[in-house]
Amino acid sequence: MVCAGWKGGLQYDRRVRETMSAGQVEELYRQHGGLVYRRCLALLRDPDEARSAVQEVFLRIMGRLAHEEAVGNIRSYLFRAATNHCLNLLRDRRKLADCLDCDHVAGARRDDPHQQMAWRDRLEACLAGLSDRDRLAVHLYWGEGLTQDEVAEVLGLNRVTVVHLLARLRERLRLKDTLGGDGT
Amino acid sequence: MDRTARCLSSYAIEKAAGGKGWATPLSQEQLAHLEICPLCAERVRQTRAAEAEFRSIVLPDGSALLADRLRHRRSERFLAWGLSGAVAAAAVLVAVLVLPQGGGSEGTRSNTGGRETGIPAVQPHGGGSEGTRGNTGGRETGIPAVQPRGAAGDSEKPSGMPGPDSGRLEGAGRQAMPVAERSYTGLKAASSLILYVKRGQDVFRHEPGTPLRPGDELRVVPVAPERSCILLLLRDAAGDVQIVYPWNGKASGPLPEAGQPVAGAFELDERIGTEEWVAVFSDVPIEAAALVGKVSGSSVEKAGRRVVAGVPVEVVVARYEKVGP
Questions:
Q1: Within this chain, do residues B188 and B305 fall inside the same structural domain, yes or no?
Q2: Integer CA distances (angstroms), B136 to A184, B233, B239, B279, in order
Q3: A72 vs B contacts (CB less than 8 Å)
Q4: B26 is in which domain, residue-wise?
Q5: How does pLDDT run across B290-310, given as a tens digit for each residue?
Q6: Chain B: residues touching A (Cβ < 8 Å)
């Protein structure tokens, strides 16, 4: 029986978590590899790199799921894992800030290339210094325009926590909202 | 066509394209938007096409490759566990059979100077001893006793000398034992100072009682696992005190990372006599002025824990005799 623990809404079962096998990871890949591939392709913008990243994401899942305490939804979890992996790759290439637009940065002016360079460098350094979760929240909310509810779902947090988290990050990175209005 | 504020996010598009299995379905508002927005409808269509492309092109090869890597990874893990077990067993054997003998001999080498300075009293090399201390005459000149050579990370770091970029500090050549094994002869987690000396091409760790010479270069490694700040002072043969770290600073600086020396190498000048390095470790920065007066003159601040200006500090003194060439 493969992935017997993914019941109904694909809720994760402790027994499966403790006995996650290579076969189950392969089954996950067959079921949800497309979702991970699209995430990687959207962020890395290179099909070969995306394929390689998908492999890495699933290889790491085998080790990580055994220690995860709460995987609410496997699709959300894979969405998060793939995005995190790609953001780490982008961080190493110092391209995290490329995912954000000038319009997101308070005080940044599109008509001043020197100033744009400056805020980009500052933002890159700030993003690289964030935790994985915080970096993911910034990317999802400001970079991809997810709503606060969606960010909460991906991160596995409640909405109130996400609201506070985003407020803190907004202050720290001096960002501003451009899409989504109230963000809900 | 650009995406508008009301358009669906990439996450919502995945939900729309992927159907069931998500934690929450699309909201009524999102579904309504999908009905009227051609851009979002196109994004959903593209996502479904990408899924089909993945299944036909990427999945077949990728699945086989992943299966192979997963099996390979599992065998690697077993190998790693096996090696870890073997290493652990070997370490236990070494600890049981070898260390008791080594600990006994280490203890026989301890002396008062080693305990006071925090520098382990291991076998001195170079022939120096307490008895070799000679001239302590106090010449007063304005010339600093040491000259810093470069700052942290300088490229002039002599080969074999520990540098800020070096990982675990180990003296070159004949001083190859790990620092941790040689740093403590007294209480566990006690603070100490380690002096590394470069003389010509030779680099060695300074041992209590070993005389140094003008021209020797020093690097100072503070060890204080329980502290976060350090003020490093040098009292030269004339009794003059200078603040070495932070260089000419007015207050304590942050403690370098574990095993790392304070910035700069220090070259001993021509003055002959006893010199003392006084490290004052604390949890919060303390004013240098509160300490310099105490260290100046003939009376040297004693090692140990005390309170200075209301701040608990730990004082460590490393001492050596500077003799003529």
A1: yes
A2: 77, 19, 10, 22
A3: 23
A4: 1-97
A5: 777 666 554 445 667 777 777
A6: 3, 5, 7, 9-12, 14, 18, 21-24, 47, 50-51, 54-55, 58-59, 62-63, 65-67, 69-71, 73-74
Give the model confidence (pLDDT) of A87-111 as tens digits.
999 988 888 888 777 677 766 666 6
Q: Please identify among residues 145-184 of chain A the ones whose CB lies closer than 8 Å to any CB of chain B.
A: 145-147, 149-150, 153-154, 178-181
Q: CA-to-CA distance for A74 and A77, rounded, in angstroms?
A: 5
What CATH code is assigned to A1-93? 1.10.1740.10
Could you tell me which chain B residue has the CA closest to the CA of A7?
A: B21
Q: What ipTM describes this predicted complex? A: 0.81
Cα of B10 to nearest chain A Cα, Å: 7
Alpha carbon of B157 to those of B96, B127, B176, B218: distances in Å?
39, 27, 18, 11
Angle between helices A47-64 and A22-44 (to 10 degrees): 140
- Compute chain A's Rg from CA coordinates: 18
Arch. (CATH architecture) of A98-184: Orthogonal Bundle (1.10)
Site of tokens 């120096």: B128
